[in-house]
Structures are given as C-alpha cells and as structure tokens.
Amino acid sequence: MTRSNTYKIGFLLFPGFPMACLTSMIEPLRAANEISKTETFEWVLVSEAREKVLASAGVSFEADIVLRSDLAVDCLILLAAPNSPFEAASTAGHLRGLARHGTTLGAVSGGVFPLTRSGVQVRDAISVHWCYAAAFEAEFPNTPTSDQVIEVSDTILTASGAAAAFDLSLQLIRTRLGEATATEVACWFQHPMMRTDDVRQSIPTISSVAKSEQSLPANVARVIDIYSAALSDPPRLSDVADAVGISPRQLERSFKKATGLNPSNYLRRMRMKAARQLVMYTNQSFTEIAEAVGYSSTSILKRYYTEVFGLSPREDRERINLFRVNGNVPVPAI
Q1: pTM
Q2: Which segments constitute the HTH araC/xylS-type domain (predicted)?
C-alpha cells in the first residue's frame, strides 16, 4: 500500500461508550484503504488515562495513547454514553486546545454530550439521536441541533448513532478517495444506501399502525412536528388543525387512522417519551421534569408515566442506577 495524504483519526473512548459506533467508523476506513491500495486513513484509540475502557457491551478496549492538547491527529471523535463524566480535569481544556489549533472534533451518539460540555464552540447544528434529544436540549438549550442522521461542517462532525457513524465514514471516504471508492465500500458491507447530511433520522411512532414517522401522512407528520416543538405548552387542537389546513374533526379522524391514537393521547405519549429521556439521562428533579413536559405537578407525571411504562419515574431512575458504572454513566448507550 502507498501513503496518500494520510488522514489520522483519533477515537476518544469514555466508559460505557457504544462499541458498535467505534467499529462502524473504523471498518469502512479499513476497507477503503484496501480497495484503494493506499494508507489514506489511520486511526488510534485515545483515553483520558492510559488504561482499558469498558464499552457498554462489557467489552474492554485498551487505548493506544492518552489525550493531550497537542495530539497528532487530524480529527478526534468522542464516543461516550450521555452521562459520561470527564475523569481528568484537563480533558475539557485539551479538547478546546485541539479545536483552537485546527483539529476537527466530532462525536457519535452520546458523545455529543461531553463534546458540548467541554466548552468547544459549536456554531453549526450537530446531530443528536432522537432518544437523547429531550435530555440534550434540557442541558444545552442554546446549542443548535438537528434530527439529520449526520451533520458535517468544517469544524464539527457528528453522527446520531452506529449506523449513522458508518455513513459519516463514507462521507470521509468520498471526500478523500472519491465517489466510486465510497460506493464500493458501501457495497462491501451491503450498506443499503449512502446517507448524507440531508437525511432525517428514522424515528419510531407511538403507534400500533405506522412503523416510523416517515411513513405517516403529511398532515399527521406535520402535527407531530408541531407538538414536538412545544411539549411544555402545546397549541390547542383547533390551532393545530388550522396550521395543517383541515378541520379539527378531520384531524382527529386522520390521526386515529394513521396512528391508532387520537391527537391528545399521542401528545401524552410524546410527553412520556421525553420525560423518560430526562429521567434516564439527566439529574433533573421530578418537578423539573414535569414542568419540562407540560405538567403542573409531579403527581400527574407519575400517573401517566406509570400507565405507559409500568413503573413510576422514581422507580425507573432507581432501576437504571442498578446498571450504572462509576460516574453515574448509564448502560447501555446507543
């Protein structure tokens, strides 16, 4: 193999990181090198301290090097659970230093949390997995986010999950080795399509009928978008119906046919999904969580939460704590 403008990527591993996100990025890069007969891509595993890092699946990885502010990489990707803490006080400073000196920073799945906590300037929207969206917005209300599978800018690379990490690697391959090589890599792994940064995440519906939001009728999907943007203070049904250009009665019928639920029950389920993210991935009080999803008391939250999930918010948080590792990191991560 020949060396051709080698692009070196570091993967900063935090305890509880999702292993699939790491392999989904490395394997396409390895294949690209083989197909092109070059060493275009190199990679190295990085940790805060030179020791083994346990992934969410219980598999340990030994880092090659320790994080420094002068780390010799072109790009550093953070892999973490959403609650991953900085084990070293210097970590945030090292990340900011790397960014100042031109290193491209990135994150996959829960890695967007420590990336943003580091204080690195985020000017462009970053991709946040739908199951972390409520928790991320609660912690970082001023950080721009998107529901695209990946987001690529000059300074920040983000992917929403493991499959999206594969797409992010394909983007890197396309940029450095061309469309043909990227397509061949995708075919090697039987990756069905190369998704770019204009493709939205597939989000499951709260429905016994439709499988994902992409399969819903346009007016129903629009209503869900309206509710998603205003869970704490949603508009009245009549106002929502006006916004999509149909009568409230038509909206009720369309919604029930498409999802199996009427709009008010669907909204309640959406609120519970958001509440559960806050229970699982933040340390917010139950009063704060109730307010965030539009309820005036914790008793209302508890009643609906228990109806949907079969246990109270407190019981759910205590159950999650049984599976947490040092630093209150939840396992598994996505």
Answers
A1: 0.74
A2: 221-319
